[in-house]
Amino acid sequence: SQQGEEDPQALSIQEGENATMNCSYKTSINNLQWYRQNSGRGLVHLILIRSNEREKHSGRLRVTLDTSKKSSSLLITASRAADTASYFCATGSTSTGNQFYFGTGTSLTVIP
Amino acid sequence: DAGVIQSPRHEVTEMGQEVTLRCKPISGHDYLFWYRQTMMRGLELLIYFNNNVPIDDSGMPEDRFSAKMPNASFSTLKIQPSEPRDSAVYFCASGRDRDYGYTFGSGTRLTVV
Fold first, then answer.
1. What is the mean pLDDT of residues B67-82?
2. Considering only CA atoms, which of B1, B47, B46 is closest in space to residue B24?
3. Residue A2 contacts B, CB cutoff 8 Å
4. Could you read off the pLDDT of A75-87 as tens digits, one per residue?
């Protein structure tokens, strides 16, 4: 399968704590994206990291990519109740053109 | 920019009826994607277009599904006849190319009874 797989499936933390989600994939990729989905809503693009990049930051988000292990992590620092959502990684490769394959997601609950 | 606009937001129909889902992508985006999301199967790519041309429809589950993009600002996904197992949330997304993220619509929640 070309899909990424997120780990853990569900995560519950207290507001202010950091949240770390992981994504593993099987094929070579050109880039990897992280998306957030609030309940009943569409997906929102958070960050894209290219295969030649190892780390990327955007506000409270930090994404790492280890192509040798075929894995990525998303760190949300100083979490807020509004961060409660499902988070998905999506992988893209030359072989799949402009298609991205999504994993099953991590459901994050931030308790106020 | 109003983002990707999908209609209707909710659709309830009886088995055997034809269902048409609509999508207006963001102006200037050359790629349009249709995804389906269910609890069991997660997000599945059904079909995607580049410059209004269908590029890969291998994700379309059956001949009952068809998609068109008559122009750069409009696409439809049609299910005929619909079945209960088609019940899902259908998302449309558009993008410029693979080095940028995609923008998703709010989805159409389809229920076939």
1. 97
2. B1
3. no
4. 999 999 999 999 9
